[in-house]
């Protein structure tokens, strides 16, 4: 199944289809049956603590929320419109200033209308996470086109 | 050096409180500057404002704000409320947050109001709500715990 996803193509979908992810520089590393890995290169402009440069929790929320959505696409193998219903994040330790933040997200259950997802954020070691998260999403939340179609339209328009 | 910068930061917070001008603190926190946050004093209390900006869009066809930005805004509004209303000797640290998404957020100016559900000695429990044009139609709500000492 992991062969189904071309990472470069998905990076284009993120860059063209999700403006905020393009703005902050979200990168995809892996996408397959065991979920997705996104990462965000460290940028001082996202620090929440001006004294030590530790990232604001909100930027980690954004990275996790984005990866969660993509992990649903990985499970369903299509890019239908999604809406986050709820998202809970436990901040386990501060992110280390200067280091990239990774997130691994896995959609472990879908019903006709709802997807259930869990994710962690970490630096190098998955067993020493920065944050742990669970989220639920509404599937086919709108009649708007699927994410890959949106990205394709934006690319064609440019 | 870092201790001095921390002291400098706390004194900025205290000065902001005295002058009722939070811009200097927001300018000092890089992520708050990125979001372009403002704090307004209204009759009902403190209202945190997220400006309209295309860079916050998550779904360009609706269009709608990115869920992560909404979550980040609620967390920020809670933190700002804590700093503005409580005695702070250090920067409060977020322990966890649960965000409930109630309506799709349009890419327009968004407001948030926080209340301290329980101002504990070590942990502050907060509730935050965000809305756009209509205060009675919140787009998202959150509860969060912050370590304050």
Tell me what the structure shows:
The complex is a heterodimer of chains A (158) and B (149). Chain A is α+β, with helices and mostly antiparallel strands and 158 residues long. Chain A has a single domain (2-157), classed as Hotdog Thioesterase (Thiol Ester Dehydrase, Chain A, Roll), CATH 3.10.129.10. Helices cover 30% and strands 32% of the residues of chain A. Chain A has helices at 7-17, 19-24, 57-76, 147-157; strands spanning 27-32, 35-40, 82-91, 101-110, 114-122, 131-139. In chain A, α1 (7-17) packs across α4 (147-157). The N and C termini of chain A lie far apart (32 Å). The model of chain A has no long low-confidence stretch (mean pLDDT 92). Chain B contains four helices and eight strands, in the order αααββββαββββ. The relative contact order of chain B is 0.17. In chain B, 33% of the residues lie in helices and 35% in strands. In chain B, β1 and β2 (45-50) form a beta hairpin. Chain B is globular and about 50 Å long. The mean pLDDT of chain B is 92. In chain B, the strands form two sheets. In chain B, strands 1-2-6-7-8-5 form a six-stranded antiparallel beta sheet, covered by helices on one side. A two-stranded antiparallel ribbon of chain B has the order 3-4. By secondary structure, chain B is α+β, with helices and mostly antiparallel strands. Chain B has helices spanning 2-19, 23-28, 30-35, 67-85, and strands at 38-42, 45-50, 57-59, 64-65, 93-101, 110-119, 123-131, 140-147. Chain B has one domain (2-147): Hotdog Thioesterase (Thiol Ester Dehydrase, Chain A). Chains A and B meet through α2, α3 and β3 of A and α1, α3, β3, α4 and β5 of B. β3 of chain A pairs antiparallel with β5 (93-101) of chain B, so a sheet runs across the interface.
Distance between the terminal alpha carbons of chain A, to the nearest Å? 32 Å
CATH top level of chain B? Answer: Alpha Beta
| Number of discrete helical segments of chain B | 4
Mean pLDDT across the residues of chain B is: 92
As a percent range, the share of helical residues of chain A equals 25-40%
